[in-house]
Design a protein that fits this description.
The chain is an all-alpha fold. Helices cover 75% and strands 0% of the residues. It is built from 3 helices and no strands. The longest helix has 24 residues.
């Protein structure tokens, strides 16, 4: 049972890094239109979309990925607590 918890915890941890990578792609022109950028977009955008609906951007700054990463970190903490990792 602990190995399942470790697998879920690691998946959440890796997913948060995928979100960070997707955010970093926005700093470079046309990077999100590249094949790695489109791949990350297909993986990350479905998770970020609900956060973007409720958290409006502040000017040119989109805070929804930050909130999404915080939620992932809280979920991974819950997984650690539940599975006793």
């Amino acid at each position: 049972m602990q190995s399942i918890g470790l697998l879920i915890y690691n998946a959440l941890y890796i997913y948060s890094f995928l979100i960070i990578g997707y955010i970093l792609l926005s700093w470079f022109p046309n990077a999100r239109e590249s094949s790695p950028g489109q791949f990350l977009g297909r993986i990350v955008e479905p998770y970020l979309e609900p956060f973007r609906r409720f958290i409006p951007p502040l000017g040119m700054i989109d805070l929804s990925p930050i909130v999404a990463i915080i939620v992932l970190r809280l979920a991974s903490g819950g997984v650690r607590t539940i599975f006793g990792i």
